[in-house]
Write a structure and sequence with these properties.
Length: 185
């Protein structure tokens, strides 16, 4: 399984934190073409392998790798989401959701060959003009199109750093998990 992190200029401290905790992390840096092209390149890097796709502004839980790999071992053929901000997280816990409900690209798992399938779908995605930074919407539309559900893991295994979004500065600075525990220094 590949661990692939998307990053951009000005976030070197964030990227260094993730690199410190995930051996063999593959870094895909925005080359100035924007977050969607960076995401496309990250999907290419995954090739036919299974992959954890991460953004650089994650905070990892302690024992992140062992926790995430255990979760994936139980559902190798299903997309898994490791960060959400939903009220249902507190009342329903871990659960299966309809693919059309997928939101947030902070940290998620794609099974083997799915990154390639998602990229092929992405290249024809008709909502790009409407959502030029909609990585998660692309995933949601792909899952809906392919009639797949996905798994949300509670407690979340990553949290989102408080701060300004590099993708869209209009987003809230406090996009944080309701269930994240045990941050890794």
């Amino acid at each position: 399984m590949k661990y692939i992190m998307r990053t951009c200029d000005g976030r070197e401290d964030y990227a260094d934190y993730v690199k410190k905790h995930i051996p063999n992390l593959i870094v895909v840096k925005d080359d100035g073409q924007g977050p969607m092209k960076c995401f496309e390149r990250a999907l290419d890097v995954a090739e036919d392998d299974s992959a954890i796709h991460l953004e650089d502004d994650v905070i990892l839980t302690k024992n992140f790798i062992s926790k995430i790999e255990l979760t994936i071992s139980e559902r190798k053929d299903m997309v898994c989401q490791f960060f959400t901000m939903r009220k249902d997280d507190l009342t329903k816990g871990s659960r299966i959701e309809n693919g059309s409900n997928f939101i947030s690209a902070l940290c998620f798992y794609l099974p083997p060959k799915m990154s390639k399938g998602l990229k092929n779908y992405f290249l024809k995605w008709e909502r790009l003009d409407e959502h030029p930074t909609g990585l998660d919407l692309t995933v949601a539309d792909y899952l809906k199109h392919t009639k797949q559900k996905y798994y949300i893991h509670i407690p979340n295994l990553v949290d989102h750093r408080v701060g300004k979004s590099a993708i869209d500065s209009r987003r809230s600075t406090k996009r944080v998990s309701l269930t994240f525990q045990d941050p890794m220094e």
